[in-house]
Design goal:
Elements (H helix, E strand, L loop, with lengths): L1 E3 L11 H10 L5 H21 L5 E3 L7 H9 L15 H9 L11 E3 L6 E3 L2 E2 L11 H11 L4 E6 L1 H7 L1 E2 L9 H16 L4 E5 L11 H15 L4 E5 L9 H5 L5 E5 L8 H7 L5 E7 L9 H15 L4 E5 L18 H4 L5 H15 L5 H16 L6 H8 L12 H7 L20 H11 L5 H22 L16 H4 L2 E5 L6 E4 L2 E3 L3 E8 L5 H9 L6 E5 L1 H6 L2 E2 L5 H21 L4 E5 L14 H16 L7 E6 L8 H6 L4 E4 L11 H4 L5 E4 L12 H14 L18 H19 L6
Parallel strand pairs: 1-12, 2-6, 5-7, 6-8, 8-9, 9-10, 10-11, 11-12, 16-18, 17-19, 19-20, 20-21, 21-22
Antiparallel strand pairs: 3-4, 13-16, 14-15
The structure holds the ligand Nc1nc2c(c(=O)[nH]1)N[C@@H](CNc1ccc(C(=O)N[C@@H](CCC(=O)N[C@@H](CCC(=O)N[C@@H](CCC(=O)O)C(=O)O)C(=O)O)C(=O)O)cc1)CN2, methionine and zinc ion (ZN).
Pfam families: Meth_synt_1, Meth_synt_2
Pathway: Amino-acid biosynthesis; L-methionine biosynthesis via de novo pathway; L-methionine from L-homocysteine (MetE route): step 1/1
Keywords: Amino-acid biosynthesis, Metal-binding, Methionine biosynthesis, Methyltransferase, Repeat, Transferase, Zinc
Amino acid sequence: MKTHVLGFPRIGARRELKKALEDYWAGSLSPQDLISVSNSLKERHWKIQKDSGLSYVATGDFSLYDHVLDTSVMLGAVPERYGAKASGIGPDTYFQMARGDVGGNIAAMEMTKWFNTNYHYLVPEISPAQRFSLSSPAIVKDTRRAIELGYLPKPVLVGPITYLSLAKGEGSFNVWERIEDITDVYAEVIAELSTLCDWIQIDEPVLCGDLAPEAPWRFLETYVKLNQAVGKAGLLLTTYFDSLDEHLDLALSSGCAGLHIDLTCGRNDPYDRIVERLPEDMSLSVGLVDGRNIWKTDMTKALSVLRDIEKRIGPDRLLIASSCSPMHSPVDLNLETKLKPEIRSWMAFAVQKCEEVCLLGDALSGKNRDETLRANAEVLESRLSSPLAKNEAIRERCAGISEDMLHRKSPYRERKKAQSWLDLPIFPTTTIGSFPQTPEIRKNRLLFKRGELSRDGYKFFIEKEIHKVVKIQEELGLDVLVHGEPERNDMVEYFGERMGGFCFTDNGWVQSYGSRCVKPPVIYGDVFRRAPMTVREFSFAQSLTSKPMKGMLTGPVTVLCWSFVRDDLDRSEVCRQIAFALRDEVLDLERSGAKIIQIDEPALREGLPLKGRDAEAYLRWAVEAFRITSSGVDDETQIHTHMCYSEFNAIIQSIAEMDADVISIESSRSRMELLDVFRVFEYPNEIGPGVYDIHSPRVPTEAEIMKLIQRAAEYIPKERLWINPDCGLKTRGWEETLKSLKNMVAAAKAMRIGHQDF
Ligand SMILES: Nc1nc2c(c(=O)[nH]1)N[C@@H](CNc1ccc(C(=O)N[C@@H](CCC(=O)N[C@@H](CCC(=O)N[C@@H](CCC(=O)O)C(=O)O)C(=O)O)C(=O)O)cc1)CN2
Ligand code: MET
Ligand SMILES: [Zn+2]
């Protein structure tokens, strides 16, 4: 049998790629040096895979920004506005597609969530005029390079059905009309790769979700052609993030030489059913090592599954693998020195996952790995019985949930009257929470963390920042202020650090998009709040102004989705524990004088399971968790929430059920497409559809913002509209922030003329 992983994190154990990219963009690293950093990362990652004993190394999975963008580039699918030459797409065009034009005139491609992960990809755009041709042989080049270095490569492609399912057509153009053109390009690259390798991994995770109506027959047609092109190599049709279920037949009749399934998802088809029906000439790659969490694999369980499958299909048709690409997990546990040894012993990062896959292979083929297996069994045993993971008081509190905890005292209409003491104008202006996280802020935090700046020194510095941000907002004339979140490293990590049941890594970075990374906290035990988490900064900020200051929290679903979550307790239960901890914080903020409290839930949509039929159960507990957090306050207190980075239209009903008084929501990158849903669904409370894109340094004009507000006012009654940017400003610089907000406030004021009566 063979062993492999479906990819490898590309950011580097010490975020080398992040640093190189940011230096390159700043003009302080040459293009040659950027290439040399990426080559050395690729080579290092191949070596890790080979040294741990895997049969193959993944090639073509590396990317300078995003692998879906790379696929667009490979296909030559570069939107016209980037003016690419047929002669090839250089780094300038590539980064323009990813980040927009630095001069500010060409918009970046839209960015959204990769399935139910916290990774973001650039949405392929396809116009009717788009022509396709094999435009970037990067994957071929990398595969050849791996061979030169003595590795057995397994190239990785995003499959054509997944690619088109994630693409958007210009206007009402149906992207499936281009499937044949795209298939031709895939066939070309596959033919070229097939002379270099045994297996070509072709990722079609979309098969684990709901398919577009034309996708199934397009899939079959496409794979007939691709399998004709593949020559003596085999296509490994690769699925992950859920089970195949109703699309199993499709996968089994694809004609591919192999099928990869993810057995870590819990909801999976019994593998039995798949093995039973597997065509005789199809190999099966079994994903048993979780590529997107950090816990050690239960080897005893995994081996028993593998032995059973091997008995039935024989070793030659069996591949052992990670469930998905470990790009969603941190790189190397060996860099973690400060974790509690007991908890650390429960974990495996990407490097260790490679070793786990090999261990499974060795054990299955009869190599003596008994000692390692025994150690694994002991660790898993210790984890299950560890007192670190369980807190009876929390379990009891969660079990004692009652209906009245889930409801505000009065319905929105009455609350609205009770909240009139806020005395806000029509079209009230606000921001989403964070202001620029300057290098100076990060430096001071680092000094404080290293013990080189005293607690008081750091506190003083943060207060100075808050003071600055409050004064600036007053000068800008914003109506509802924020403290700017300078004390927060990250909106989830910060709260994790203040709750029990969490622990933290030093280097456990995972790519979120481009050069941006997150360091998800680890939830290993029952979650509780130790002490107030945000009251001090809120109170200080409110003391500086007579305008309402928002208390600012990250919601329970987002804390859950952006953490590595224990796998020995249901996610809904973990979420409920977080919700109760945050409920206490909300009440403390209210007691400290917060008239408005914002509870961010940007990850609500991301937590949705891939299959529509599982959505309802998830949404039920997710909305419930938000309501546990938010419902304890009096009618007079206004609850806000915020969402971004996703399409929310499909879940607008659930968003309404969260019953926040005000919701701010991303909408400007898609030019208010979001609003279409309000033609058919009347959002009952107040809403602030973002009026400018904070992901780009571009400054929107006053006229442009007015136009968006006017558009929004066609869908949402004016007296329920708020004016705010799309998201927080932490990734922006001060210069563009000030100019943009000035224009935003001016636009709101201009809109007020003639509406004094409201
Ligand atoms: N968890 C999470 N998921 C999310 C989002 C989010 O905000 N958080 N937003 C969306 C994605 N957008 C994102 C937007 C920004 C960043 C981001 O800015 N990340 C920072 C790291 C943020 C952080 O934790 N910063 C820490 C540590 C900073 C750091 O790297 N320090 C350096 C030194 C810093 C210096 O000398 O300047 C070091 O330790 O080496 C801090 O501020 O304290 C980055 O990649 O640069 C990430 C995701 C969706 N998913
Ligand atoms: C990704 S949503 C961000 C919300 C947070 N309050 C901020 O402004 O940064
Ligand atoms: Zn946001």
